[in-house]
Amino acid sequence: MQIDSITILGGTDKNGNPEPVKEVNILKGEIVSLVGPTGSGKSCLMSDLDKVAQSDTPTHREILIDGQKPTQDIKSQIKKMVGFISQNMQFFCNLNVSEFLKLHSESRELTFNEELVNRVLSLANQITGEPINPNLNLTVLSGGQTRALMIADIAVISDTPVLLIDELENAGILRDKALGILLEEGKIVLIATHDPVLALMAQRRIVFKNGAMVQVIESSNKERVVAKRVARIDHSLEKLRNCVRGGETIESLEGYEL
């Protein structure tokens, strides 16, 4: 099943008042950030999307798929088509990376081969400073490696057209590159974040307050320029982190600038 758009129909805030934002339509290939203080309602919207809410959640929102209210049959299908990446993701299965990718590709009825593994790891290693090799056990992956592997896996193997990301900022990955990969795959991406880089790199951002969507802001050209500048600083910091972790000195980073 293909999903070309998701529409969020506004419900109520924590006090039962109607949400100021009545409707948000998100198209395939669009990244939308969710911003606001802790407890302002970002995670509740993600929960509404995950459940394909039909005025049956505390927010009383409705989720439309391709402009239509989904039937019960379609609703159960859609739930399987929403991917979720959180800050606290961990693996508990005793498999190495290659075995995990084999298991996942076979469950998706894809042909598993070395080329597929290489493609996933190539993408993952573009966005994490700690290289992942196919023989690493999943349980020893760091938080950054785990998130990078999941993003690459979703891009190459999963056919989930909708992706929800909860707080990617402290995951130890290059966030702008991660978003670029997902954008190329044409997915509908919503990312809850406190990070100005991620917020400004999205095409739009939904602002939350007291459990409600209070404003939708289109990212301006100036904001995207600022986001790119900050991302460059972020890359420099990541290079410095890896240098220090590896027991090297700054002098070893030829031409290094912050």
Plain-language structure description:
The structure is a single chain. The strands form two sheets. The protein has a six-stranded mixed beta sheet, with helices on both faces. Strands 2-1-4 form a three-stranded antiparallel beta sheet, with no helix packed on it. Helix 4 packs across helix 5 (about 145-155). The relative contact order is 0.17. It has two domains: about 5-220, Rossmann fold (3-Layer(aba) Sandwich); about 225-258. The mean pLDDT is about 85. The radius of gyration is 19 Å and the shape is globular. About 40% of the residues lie in helices and about 20% in strands. The protein is an alpha/beta fold.
Which helices and strands occur, and which strands form pairs?
Blueprint: E1 5-9, E2 23-27, E3 31-35, H1 42-51, E4 62-65, H2 72-79, E5 82-86, H3 97-107, H4 114-127, H5 143-156, E6 162-166, H6 175-184, E7 188-192, H7 196-201, E8 204-209, E9 212-218, H8 221-245
Parallel strand pairs: 3-7, 3-8, 5-6, 6-7
Antiparallel strand pairs: 1-2, 1-4, 8-9
